[in-house]
Amino acid sequence: MQRSGGGAVSREINVNSRRPLIPDVPLLVERKLTHRTMTQADRETVTLDDPPRSRPVSITVLAWFLIVGGALFLLMKPITWSEFTLERNLWNTFSKAASLVCGIGLLGMRRWAVVLYFGLFALNCVLIYTWPPNEMVLVQYSRPGPIAVMMIVPAIVAAITLPRWKAMRW
Predict the structure, then answer these.
(1) Which of 20, 144, 151, 152 is 20 to 30 A from 160 (CA-CA)?
(2) Three-class SS string for the chain?
């Protein structure tokens, strides 16, 4: 700690020493950094140099389920394109591509993947009942069985991901 002219105390991290951090490597010297003068690159090196955290098996299985399911859907979509209206086909394709991205994000233990997944789930719930329904959609989603299954899958995802929220990064 050093006092400045007005009597205020400024915090500094290791004041201007000329000895190297690693004695065998003379190019690495300590730098004078305060909490206000750290550049964005300094902040990133501090946060990105953390040791990697191991990914739980349950998140790995969930991520691969999303990746394989999304990829298979996208590969099979040209065959089933005519069953629904154009809007539903486009939304289904976008939704499955986004779930594939969610799976990739979960493999990297990213919080945005969880947020994206639940955002897609909420939007899917709204769109099922607000878009012009066709007979097949009304028959399928007016029974309690499909609605229960539709709610169970996100509950499982929440049970797997939310307890590990702090271990994830944005």
Answers:
(1) 144
(2) CEECCCCCEECCECCCCCCECCCCCCCCECCCECCCCCCHHHHHHHHHCCCCCCCCHHHHHHHHHHHHHHHHHHHHCCCCHHHCCHHHHHHHHHHHHHHHHHHHHHHCCEHHHHHHHHHHHHHHHHHHHHCCCCHHHHHHHCCHHHHHHHHHHHHHHHHHHHHHHHHCEC
